[in-house]
Amino acid sequence: MATESSEGEDESKMVGGNQQLMVEDDLREMANKAAWSVSSCKPGNGVTALRDDNLDTYWQSDGAQPHLVNIQFQKKVKLQLVVLYVDFKLDESYTPSKISIRAGDGFHNLKEVKTVELIKPTGWVYISLSGNDPRETFVNTFMLQIAVLSNHLNGRDTHVRQIKVYGPRLNPIPHQPFQFTSREFITYSTVR
Amino acid sequence: MEAMLIDCVQSSLRQLMYHNAIFMCERLCAEFPSETNLQLLAGCYLHNNQAYSAYHILKGTQLAQSRYLFAISCFQMDLLNEAETALYLANDPNAEVPNGAAGHYLLGLIYRYTDRRKRAVHHFKQALSIDPLLWAAYEELCILGAAEEATSVFGEVAALCIQKQHRSHEVANQNSQASSEDDNLVSGINFGSEDVSSRDVRHINAKIMRDIPRNYPGAVMSGGAASQPLNGRAANISFYSTPSPMAAQLSGVAPPPVCKNVQPNGPNPNAVNVDGSPRSTVNSTIQAPRRKFVDEGKLRKISGRLFSDSGPRRSTRLAGEAAVSTNSSTTTVTGNGTSHSSKYLGRSKMSSVTFHSVTVRKGQSWENESFEEGIRHEVHDDSRSNVTTSSSLPSGDLRSIEQEVATMPAGEVVMSSSRVVTGASEVLALLRTLGEAYRLSCLYRCQDALDAYLKLPNKQYNTGWVLSQVGKAYFELIDYLETDHAFSLARLASPYSLEGMDIYSTVLYHLKEDMKLSYLAQELISTDRLAPQSWCATGNCYSLQKDHETALKNFQRAVQLNSRFAYAHTLCGHEYVALEDFENGIKSYHSALRIDARHYNTWYGLGMIYLRQEKFKFSEHHFRMAFQINSHSSVIMSYLGTAFLALKRNEEALEMMEKAILADKKNPLPVYQKANILVSMEKFDEALKVLEELKEYAPHESSVYALMGQIYKRSNMYDKAMLHFGLALDLKPPTTDVATIKAAIEKLHVPDELEDTM
């Protein structure tokens, strides 16, 4: 339970939240084939609410803090961005306030990657996983854990309405060191 | 009563009133159960897209025509085994395949779909030898990669064959013997149904009357407004002849000519009673249906290019054949009758599903077939008009006979052999050009194919089918701008045709023209929601927006609509790969290959999957297969080279890249890959030289600078490396590359620091 910044990862405060989900073109949603699980939930508000693309349904935890959302991939993937939809106006004391994101090979060796503190967010909150070093643009991992450490107004349980995880797109041409950007190259680069 | 019912059924069919036809026919069969009546009923069902009904009533029948109809129903219901046994009696391999060319053609299709390529080729060749104007068979041969040169297929031999057929038909007609040649003449082509009437109108206006087969002299005239009386008479004659054979056959009895002739006019029951008088009454009624025939005839002949249904033709032919067997004649050709024509139209609908798929597969339009059909309307018209003499009218000749009809004695239309010759030779000349061009494009010798298409007269060139083929040829040459141009002309020429539109959507995808692509997709969907090409276009649209899941759904819909449309499977495969679902991708690609093993993009797709999965030997094998099919594609060559590189066979890789560069100067990919190979062989200077040239060609390509930066780094020329990395970053590469480049830059500094500290 790494609440304080560890290993040099700093906390950041985030205010607000977008109503629109806008992600760069060269990112794609990575967690469709991943295994999602939560530490606890209230019946009827389970983990499927996090992935159903419906902002009216939410996951409600039902246990002790921290509440965890675990995402396990079948192979090591490069991840860049985590996006959550939370709404203080609707959820008030259920809105998460401190979130920690951990990554690792499994439950046994998760290490914190990022911690953020949300301040009355209403909408999509973007949490980038990149470090400062360009070599750390992506987190290459088997598992991601999103931990809700505390809620607004000291609520015990939390509501999260949607979570999306993004990573870079594959190079359409395998075994190429770099991707093509110009039209001349792209036109000739594949057969369809 | 039987004759009355038959007549009624036929007139209903002619007027496309299938419900009525089926009802009356069922009464007929109940009252006079006989196999020929069953055939008529099956025909009605097939017209009405009820292949299953036809299947059940014809099960176990033995007559040639019944077996043929049964095979058609099985084929439409996808029961290929039964269709095969119906057509090809295994215990008696020397038995005649029912309906000659048509039967062979159908058999060929069956073998093709059950993966027995050699036999399929054999049967298509048979079909062509029996009926040299059977374009569909030639087309299939091209698709299977086994076609001979068009000049030999549509050459002298063919011309003689046609002449012989005509002559024998005449004889046959006169002797009232079922001519098997009729069968030959029948082209078993089924086309997707097209809107015949609209075409008719177009054609009538555009084309010359003379194209109308003699059968329709009346009609022609009516269309063109000419010699009514004469034509009327002739029309009578042909008209008479048309229905009668049909009727005759179906009832299985040779009806007294007089009665039969009278009957055709369903709407004119009075005619039945009077032998002589009907003529006048018939006359009037004839005009209308005649027109239809004419149109069809014209349509067929003239619209060789457009998508016309030859389906109906086939049915007419079938009907005709049935008729022929008992009476003489007139084969299906248009003249025959209303029943034929109606069947024709109906058939086309029916055939639309299966045959459409067949035709569509390679974006080929079957117009040519219809073209054939037109020729076929060789009107073996059995002019049984009240008079006993009937001569078969060898049709096929476009020019002919109208004038001759005029001079014919009542009830006798004869096509002079000279007309046959000239007509046949003209048709063959046209087919030769088209066939050769098509064959070349199937062999992917696209430049030659384009030259061949240019030899066509303007009238033929500016038709939807030819322009689509031209577009396809440019597509294979990777000249997307020309392809776009050709396809847009094709859309102008025939805005309702869907052939080749899937390729057009792919071109727009390559050109990244999302506006045009979405417009095309919308148009296609509104034209025909049930055509696989429309869904392929929509899928391509979504794929361009990187929404691969929706694109996949669209392609799956296309597959559902027509599971024999290979390209839809291939596109599904591409989307699965984009979604990284390699297993399903492989499955989709394999289904595509099962349908069409010469679909080189499928082989390419499989090669790409294996390349990603690092199964390099497999990948090399698949790219090589693709290369063997299409030896002119520089893209395939460069991927084959990449596979060699992955297998560490650098020399071969280089060789292949050189070939690719030669094949298409405008393709930067092999040049880039060549640089890659040189880098891996540590020939940095050469690699740099190559990249410098490439820089000139594509100055905004970030990967070129990035690679150069890497080379400079490895050669320890850090300043230059830095410069190039910076340039690469300026060109906004995607995030992964940014990360790689930035990381490389960071690492660059380390040696500098070391130097500083030293």
Question: What's this model, at a glance?
Answer:
The complex is a heterodimer of chains A (about 190) and B (about 750). Chain A is mostly beta strands and about 190 residues long.
Features:
heterodimer; A: 192 residues; mainly beta; Jelly Rolls; six-stranded mixed β-sheet; B: 758 residues; mainly alpha; Serine Threonine Protein Phosphatase 5, Tetratricopeptide repeat; 72% helix; elongated
Write the layout of secondary structure elements.
The complex is a heterodimer of chains A (192) and B (758).
Chain A: E1 11-15, E2 27-29, E3 35-38, E4 59-60, E5 67-79, E6 81-87, H1 88-91, E7 96-104, E8 111-119, E9 122-128, E10 139-151, E11 159-160, E12 162-168, H2 183-189
Parallel strand pairs in A: 1-8
Antiparallel strand pairs in A: 2-12, 3-5, 4-11, 5-10, 6-9, 6-12, 7-8, 7-10
Chain B: H1 2-14, H2 18-31, H3 35-47, H4 51-58, H5 64-76, H6 80-87, H7 100-113, H8 117-130, H9 135-144, H10 150-153, H11 156-175, H12 180-185, H13 196-206, H14 217-224, H15 228-241, H16 243-251, H17 257-262, H18 269-273, H19 278-302, H20 311-326, H21 337-361, H22 367-376, H23 401-407, H24 417-442, H25 446-454, H26 458-461, H27 464-476, H28 480-493, H29 501-511, H30 514-527, H31 532-544, H32 548-561, H33 566-578, H34 582-595, H35 600-612, H36 616-629, H37 634-646, H38 650-663, H39 668-680, H40 684-697, H41 702-714, H42 718-730, H43 735-757
Fold and architecture overview:
The complex is a heterodimer of chains A (192) and B (758). Chain A is mainly beta and 192 residues long. Chain A has one domain (14-171, 178-188): Galactose-binding domain-like (Jelly Rolls, Sandwich). Helices cover 6% and strands 42% of the residues of chain A. Chain A has a six-stranded mixed β-sheet, with no helix packed on it. A four-stranded antiparallel β-sheet of chain A has the order 2-12-6-9. In chain A, a hairpin with a 6-residue loop joins strand 7 and strand 8 (111-119). The radius of gyration of chain A is 18 Å and the shape is elongated. With 758 residues, chain B is mainly α. Chain B has a domain at 2-219 and 353-418: Alpha Horseshoe (Serine Threonine Protein Phosphatase 5, Tetratricopeptide repeat). Chain B is built from 43 helices and no strands. Chain B is elongated, with a radius of gyration of 30 Å.
